[in-house]
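Form 12-C: Joint structure prediction
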Amino acid sequence: MPKPLQRPMIVTLLTDFGTADYFVAAMKGVILQRDPRIRIIDITHEVPVHDVESAAYVLFSCYGDFPVGTVHLAVVDPGVGSARRPLAIAVARHRFVGPDNGIFSYVLDAAPDGEMRRIDNPSLRREPFSTTFHGRDLFAPAAAFLAAGGAMERVGAEITDPVRLPPLENRSVAGAIQARILHVDRFGNCVTSLRREELRGRAWRIRVAGIEIEDVRDHYASGTEEVPFAIWGSSGYLEVSCAGTSAAARLGIRRGDRVLASLA
Amino acid sequence: MPKPLQRPMIVTLLTDFGTADYFVAAMKGVILQRDPRIRIIDITHEVPVHDVESAAYVLFSCYGDFPVGTVHLAVVDPGVGSARRPLAIAVARHRFVGPDNGIFSYVLDAAPDGEMRRIDNPSLRREPFSTTFHGRDLFAPAAAFLAAGGAMERVGAEITDPVRLPPLENRSVAGAIQARILHVDRFGNCVTSLRREELRGRAWRIRVAGIEIEDVRDHYASGTEEVPFAIWGSSGYLEVSCAGTSAAARLGIRRGDRVLASLA
Amino acid sequence: MPKPLQRPMIVTLLTDFGTADYFVAAMKGVILQRDPRIRIIDITHEVPVHDVESAAYVLFSCYGDFPVGTVHLAVVDPGVGSARRPLAIAVARHRFVGPDNGIFSYVLDAAPDGEMRRIDNPSLRREPFSTTFHGRDLFAPAAAFLAAGGAMERVGAEITDPVRLPPLENRSVAGAIQARILHVDRFGNCVTSLRREELRGRAWRIRVAGIEIEDVRDHYASGTEEVPFAIWGSSGYLEVSCAGTSAAARLGIRRGDRVLASLA
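Section 2 - Result
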């Protein structure tokens, strides 16, 4: 069998563009025009419109599963064409390309020693250049450049002050941790912001949506539809779930809802 | 032009994960981390949540169109983390990886001499290993291993008793065949479980949703919106259709509905 | 790094098949069976059912961003199995494969000197051959043949009279241009049929959905939710937008609605 390439030449895509329009295809075309060897993998295009925080969570939850050297192109960009800066970041042996609006915050919180550059090399532009679709006209060429082995220093000037979202950290109060619902997944599992290391070695129960939960299961099918339970999810956060049905629908839980963990 | 690779190194994905979460992307990342040369093709991620039978039908309808040697990774897995076994199957010159819950039943019904193994080689695990996402932590590494040329014997111990769904066979009664609706497609065509060889050389009419149909068309546009007709569909089953509109919506047909074929 | 292939061997897919059924996967399988080196890129599978005009617009808006030599396989095909011809077209250094129903009209309007052939080479068929799924059984093999370097002359006999949709041109009337809404995108931006060259150097205002707009912005975020504005979109057409909300929903605009541009 032939040897693998040294560098994987992978670009992932994460947008709020949906898949009905030509937007995602145009970005892929531009990448392949720059280098047809690049492998393109969709993370998702169903980020809720303009929801930078949701995009940041999804990217943070899966980027580390990709090979070292992957370029992650993330475009949720309500400020396209405005003064917001276009960014390229090298951190944790991955590269990231997208608008400077906080979309890479959670990656940077967990891996802070990144090299960050404003994309201002004019050769990294599709012509004609629009003010309304930088995903195609600016970010896709920059991602292709990096994936094909281009150097970060050639992308543009270094910056040190990227826009940041509030971190995913919880607030400790007397005998308790104030947390929140980060995400509701397709199955209706409600991902809280509680991490294992915060609760390790303590007895605890959580309160969310007016109910208390202290039952912890180790797989979804061991619970019942009727009684919600807690479970350590695949991204390292505690989830609230019901077996075989949507906990979010059953309990009326939505993203952003408060969660209180009481420690014994 | 360069010669094709001997082995295509293709992994298809079929899940009920949807495409809004990070789940599918994480699986793809894990596969590419194991071997970045692998080609990944989505079959669908829109299987109704936990609907193993629907997944089995979709997989059965298209796996044979892929090149010999393709690995089909199918994860509709309500029992994730429980005692249900993780399976790898080599049959019909294809390989299949997924939970032992019947998802490969229709493939096995049609091509029974498979080699089936429980995935228990600990090197085929992503670490950290979760109890809630075996698609990423167990099945994706196993699929990548097989796609990259790994041997079935190294996956784990042989088994002979996989979980099976009821077969797609119909029941013959006096002068008639009792069948059912297997699937309703995007166009509202209603796929019955009647196969061409069951009806060949006989005069017949079918009854479904309270109406009788004996008109058989050979392409969709030859019928009308008003009058439903039967047509031999692309997966080899008889379908109930209306031209230019959804037969399912017009007739109120749903998956599982009974179909009776009366033979003359 | 290895040199890029001379020819990119890319096939794009554009259909109204959705992604829940096995249809798209079967087409991809057939392509890879013919040549596993071919790269397959989805444009979209969410074209509204049987909406040839919408498919033509999406294809026209992005095909040019793909590398020269790309094969674009577009199947929105209510007449599958009927007398409508299967087409292969070489034009503008791209190739196109799909039904002869107008789906390539806008490409041909903009790049008229194409070579057009009816696909009738019997070796370009999947067997068994159905009358209901030419995407899999006829168009996918033909697209794979061309992507792998096959010659247009071997596809079938030349034709000169493909089916055409009405062109995207507007009608000029005294001091005004009668145009229409071509498309509403995921963000609710309403793409009109007005092109920059039609309005260049003139003062103008447009009327759509009972309101007048003369405010032209150069990026979406510079406007407000309350006041709709016009903006030159990424496909070269004038759009009607609101910042941070759907102009289509706010103004009740739908595809096909009339737009009148009054010139000063």
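Section 3 - Comments
The first strand of chain A starts at residue 10 and ends at 15. Helices of chain A lie at 23-34, 52-62, 105-110, 134-147, 196-199, 247-251.
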